[in-house]
Amino acid sequence: MSDSIILGIESSCDDTSAAIIKGNCILSNIAANQAIHKEYGGVVPELASRAHQQNIIPVVEKSLTKANIQQNAISAIGFTRGPGLLGSLLVGTSFAKSLAMSLNVPLIEVNHLQAHILAHFIADANPMPPQFPFLCLTVSGGHTMIVLVRDYFDMEIIGKTIDDAAGEAFDKIGKIFDLDYPAGPIIDRLAKEGNPDVFTFNKPRMENYDYSFSGIKTSVLYFIQKEVKKNPDFIKENLNDLCASVQRTIIEILMTKLEKAAKELNIKEVAIAGGVSANSALRKVMEDNHEKLGWNIYIPKFEYTTDNAAMIAMVAQLKFERGEFTDLRTSATAKYDL
Ligand code: KG4
Ligand code: ZN
Predict the structure, then answer these.
(1) Which fold has domain 131-299?
(2) pTM for this entry
C-alpha cells in the first residue's frame, strides 16, 4: 500500500469526525459527539445538521494538529456520501468538496457501510486483517446485515433485517427502561451485573439469513407494562437482569443466523462491524466461537466500531490507489447500496 496521506470526513448521523491516514496507519481520529440528542431520546436530524456545521472546522483542524500534518501534505479527501441523514451528510459533503477544490486534490466518496466493514484493514484494527472471502455481521443503529465480502469492493448482502436494526432495538428497549439515548452502551454496562437467564423474550422465526427485531421490542414493552401495573418499581428493582436478558436475546438472534451462514457457506473467516460490535457480550460470543467452531474472528478495535472517520479514510486510501475519484459536482445521498 502507498503511504499517501488522506483526510477522511464522516458526518452521516450524530458524530462529526475527521481522521488522517498514512498508508493504512491512522495518525489521528477525532470525533465530536452531539450530546443535544439525549434530551430528545433520539437523533433530531435538524439539530444534528446544525451541530455538524459548528463542529466540522474545529474537528478537521484538530485532526491535522494531532497528526502533525500541514494541509499541503494531504493527497486526497475522502468523505461519507451516504447512507445516512441527508442534512448531516450535506455538511460533510459540502465541506469535503470545498476543501478538495481549494487544495486542488482529488475528492473520494465513501459508502458508510463499506467503511464499517473495511475498517478491519486499518493497521491497528486487528492483529491480522481478514482473508477473503469472509463474512461480516454489520450491526449498527441503522443497519443489521450479514455481508459476504469477496474482495474490498465486492460485497453481497446475504441477510438483513426486515424492520428494526439491532442497535435500534437496544435503543428503543432502553427507552422503555427509561435509559438515556443511545441505550446500547448503557445496557451493555448494566447487563454485566445481571443474570441473562431471568427473563425470556420472543425470538423471531425468519426465513434464510434475514432478521427481525420489532418482535422483541413489543414483547419487552407488553411484559413491562404488565409488571409495572403490579409493581411500579419493577424496572428499577430488576434493571440489571432485564438488561442482561434483553442483551442475551438480541445476541442469540444475531449469532444464530451468522452461525448458520458460516456453516452453510463453509466460511471460517468471520468479522463483526458497526456500533453494536462494541458490545462486550457479542465480542465474548465471537471469542467462544473461535474455540468452539474454529472461526478466525475479527473484532475491530473499540474506536473503529461506532461511527468514526478513520474507517472513511481507510476506504478513501483503497480507492485512491485504484484511482477512483469523485467529480466535484457530486452530492450526498441518504440511500446508498453496498
Ligand atoms: O455504527 P453506529 O455508531 O451508528 C450508525 O451507523 O448507526 O452505531 C450506533 C448504534 C446505537 O444504536 C448504539 O446504541 C449501538 O450502536 N451501540 C451499542 C454499544 N455501543 C454502541 N449497542 C450495544 N452495546 C454497545 N456496547
Ligand atoms: Zn455507522
Answers:
(1) Nucleotidyltransferase; domain 5 (3.30.420)
(2) 0.95
